[in-house]
Design brief:
Radius of gyration: 16 Å
Largest sheet: 7 strands, mixed
Helix content: 25-40%
Number of helices: 4
Structural class: alpha+beta
CATH topology: Aminopeptidase
Shape: globular
Order of helices and strands: EHHEEEHEHEE
Strand content: 35-45%
Length: about 160
């Protein structure tokens, strides 16, 4: 009898060669997805872009902007078929580690108040609300506010 081994995931830096896969996930999971230009500009600006791969398959990614001693998580996404498997937590933990290793003292992000799953994930990782951006996310039935969350980094564990 042979055992079927589950594929292991790997966190890897992403670049221009990964754009099509990132866009496929982006368009699948977001109401108002980033454009190819958003990703191209982020890579060109030197933002930290990392992905989670199961074998050859890109299953999720994040884009992290580092500015002086602060990091801003601009995008974190997990493919629909890989959601609820803990990948969001792995990506978030890695983003926090990248920020910490780069000298950031905190990580900021924006999230829709209606995104209950994301709010739960961020709360489990110690993110706390520090503000509100009114009408931040455009939508079909008007704009939605964004909660601004912050996490102070102190000895982030791998």
């Amino acid at each position: 009898m042979s055992a079927v081994l589950a594929p292991r995931f790997e966190l890897v830096p992403l670049g221009h060669g990964d754009l099509d896969e990132m866009l496929a996930i982006e368009n699948q999971v977001h109401r108002l997805p980033w454009t190819r230009g958003n990703f191209v500009d982020s890579i060109a600006a030197g933002y930290s872009v990392w992905g989670c791969r199961f074998g050859e398959e890109l299953s999720g990614y994040f884009v992290l902007m580092l500015v002086i001693d602060e990091a801003h998580l601009l995008n974190i996404s997990v493919a629909e078929k890989r959601q609820r498997m803990g990948l969001g937590g792995h990506l978030l933990r890695h983003a926090m580690q990248v920020a910490h290793n780069s000298g950031a003292s905190s990580v900021l992000l924006e999230v829709r108040p209606s995104n209950v799953a994301a709010l739960g994930l961020y709360a489990r990782f110690g993110f706390r609300p520090i503000g509100l951006r009114r009408a931040y996310y455009p939508g079909a039935q008007g704009a939605e506010d964004a909660l601004v969350l912050r996490h102070a980094l102190a000895g982030v564990e791998q």
